[in-house]
From TrEMBL:
<feature type="binding site">
    <location>
        <position position="165"/>
    </location>
    <ligand>
        <name>substrate</name>
    </ligand>
</feature>
<dbReference type="Pfam" id="PF04345">
    <property type="entry name" value="Chor_lyase"/>
</dbReference>
<dbReference type="InterPro" id="IPR007440">
    <property type="entry name" value="Chorismate--pyruvate_lyase"/>
</dbReference>
<keyword id="KW-0831">Ubiquinone biosynthesis</keyword>
<keyword id="KW-0670">Pyruvate</keyword>
<keyword id="KW-0456">Lyase</keyword>
<comment type="similarity">
    <text>Belongs to the UbiC family.</text>
</comment>
<comment type="function">
    <text>Removes the pyruvyl group from chorismate, with concomitant aromatization of the ring, to provide 4-hydroxybenzoate (4HB) for the ubiquinone pathway.</text>
</comment>
<keyword id="KW-0963">Cytoplasm</keyword>
<comment type="pathway">
    <text>Cofactor biosynthesis; ubiquinone biosynthesis.</text>
</comment>
<dbReference type="InterPro" id="IPR028978">
    <property type="entry name" value="Chorismate_lyase_/UTRA_dom_sf"/>
</dbReference>
<feature type="binding site">
    <location>
        <position position="68"/>
    </location>
    <ligand>
        <name>substrate</name>
    </ligand>
</feature>
<feature type="binding site">
    <location>
        <position position="106"/>
    </location>
    <ligand>
        <name>substrate</name>
    </ligand>
</feature>
<dbReference type="GO" id="GO:0016829">
    <property type="term" value="F:lyase activity"/>
</dbReference>
<protein>
    <recommendedName>
        <fullName>Probable chorismate pyruvate-lyase</fullName>
        <ecNumber>4.1.3.40</ecNumber>
    </recommendedName>
</protein>
Length: 177
């Protein structure tokens, strides 16, 4: 996986309460469900769009990608903005269920299939210039100037699905016991 340098930020720079969330190798949704009541997935967008530059570097030079953007929330409190993308050919092959996930957690699909592999996690602090900060802001309103995010690629054979999760203020304030 080719990542821009800023997606290789040392974990020690992230706030300590975020470390367990940033480093969880299993389903983030399952982890959220274990700590928050009433976790729901609110679909913000599902369709085709142009890849952001740092995404195109990972998926290759494709002009348009299949995209799914959701908020993971507890009740009405948004906790995570998630942005997942894949190519059109991957929609027809390894990730054919991606387009039909609806309001179900994507992790339920990814972690239920033992043939799907996951890359290592990477993380960074995104600011107001990053397109995903802007999308999270459009979805939830007022945000701090910087947000922590993590990213990984899921593989179904040669097909790739890039998942980026942006951690929102309500989650950043929660400390795991």
């Amino acid at each position: 996986m080719s990542l821009p340098h800023y997606w290789r930020t040392p974990l020690c720079l992230a706030p300590r309460p975020l470390h367990p969330w940033l480093t969880e190798r299993g389903s983030l949704t399952a982890m959220l469900m274990a700590h928050f009541p009433d976790i729901t997935v609110r679909v913000l967008f599902q369709g085709w769009q142009k890849a952001h530059q740092d995404e195109a570097d990972i998926l290759g030079p494709k002009s348009h990608i299949a995209c799914r953007e959701v908020l993971l929330q507890s009740g009405q409190t948004p906790l995570v903005y998630a942005h997942s993308i894949t190519s059109g050919s991957a929609l027809r092959k390894g990730f054919h269920l991606f387009g039909r996930t609806g309001s179900r957690p994507l992790g339920a699909l990814l972690f239920a299939d033992p043939t799907i592999r996951r890359s290592g996690l990477s993380w960074c602090c995104i600011d107001q210039c990053h397109p995903l900060w802007k999308k999270a802001h459009a979805a939830v309103g007022k945000l701090p100037k910087k947000l922590w995010a993590r990213r990984s690629v899921f593989y179904a054979g040669h097909d790739k699905l890039l998942v980026t999760e942006v951690f929102l203020p309500a989650l950043c304030q929660y400390t795991l016991a």
